[in-house]
Amino acid sequence: MRARLNAVRHHQLFFMGLHYRRGSAPVVARRGGGRGAVRKPPPAPAWRPNADWRQLPLFGQVPRDYSRLDPADFALASPWLAWAKYLAYQLAEARGWGRGIRFAVNRGLALVLTGYVEGDVIRHTETFAPLRALDLRFGHVVTVLEEMGIFEDDSEPSFEGWLAERLEGLAPGIRSEAERWTRVLHDGGPRSVPRREGTVWLYLNRVRPALLEWSNHYDHLREVTRDDVVTYVKTLHGHQRHDQLVALRSLFTWAKRNGLIFRNPTSRIKVGQYEYAVLQPLVPAQVDRSVAAATTPATRLILALAAVHAARVAQIATLMLDDVDLGNRRLAIAGRVRPLDDLTLKLLLDWLEHRRRRWPNTANLHLLINNQTATKTNRASNHWISAPLRGQDATLERLRVDRQLEEALTHGPDPLHLAEVFGLDEKTAMRYADSARALLEQSAEQQL
Fold this sequence. Notes:
Blueprint (H helix, E strand, L loop, with lengths): L1 H6 L71 H17 L3 H14 L9 E2 H10 L4 H11 L2 E2 L5 H9 L5 H16 L9 H19 L10 H8 L4 H20 L26 H10 L3 H11 L5 H5 L6 E2 L4 E4 L2 E4 L2 H17 L23 H5 L9 H16 L3 H8 L3 H22 L1
Parallel strand pairs: 1-2
Antiparallel strand pairs: 3-4, 4-5
Helix pairs in contact: 2-3, 2-5, 3-5, 7-8, 8-10, 12-14, 12-16, 16-17, 16-18, 17-18
């Protein structure tokens, strides 16, 4: 013993009773033979508190600063909190929220419902920063508050911030007219329907360079002449000229219709027909690198849906479990029923097994889910769908185009066949047919 003690050069000290060794702590047996701590009982059923009487406020609701609230001051006995916890428990059971999410949601509810009285409204701008600072699952807390009917989303839409940034630097008169035109595109008007937000972004981004240049000389759009438009368009070539001229014609046509200008300076300026390049097929090495990058069951299924069934990213993200018919080997993509080939069927079964094991209690009915959407009901983002193959030569979009081009090369450049198989627009089908015809003619010339 003395020899051992002499060999000791250092020793780790612990507070008595706090030194934990693996296997030394007693294991609490759970009902049914499970291991670990006993699961907490569910909260008692609770409903919206009855407001027999209440003191009417003399003034409107005063904004609250939740960041100054001490956790020791949480009103844990509030009947509103009891109702919120019961609703949170029901949502957690229905949507498969884990233990960590449930704990964070209960803490967040205790924070925002402290001091709450009948008639108050919990606002987005007052609760977002405090809950995020404490990492208390803001989105899940909002879901419970919306179920209670006491949440108000007063946050500024992202479109407003983007619009203000894009209009920065324009002359005041031109800025006002461009903003009105953009809002009509976005919201619609008496004689126009709302456009998709992506289309609105493209149109304003395309007219912005011209408007910035004209803002150095003019104050209003009515001062812009046809010579100004022609001079500016001469500096553009190819698709840039086509795209910007189309957007400028939309702006000045709207301004003329609403009496903001006297003459349309873009009239009688020919846009010209856009000449598309011949689509080129992918080489096997590019496809092999994308296949090697697909290392998860979800990524393999996504790759197959794009490369075999020519599905777009948004179509893949919106697929529901009901769109899959394993018994009849059918798959509905964007409303069109397609047969399931052996490869897609195998990858689909692998993903469904992984999905069942990874998220057994999820209530999300979308086919493809991840850690963020498994506890919700919304679909996965386009970014998550396309991220694994981003940076590859054969991206999901390139694989989709290659599949449709391959169909045209194999079965002949028939636009009617392509439109029937993939549900393409007639102009898109004709473009694929023209590219296939050019590639076949080029191959025939090389063989001579």
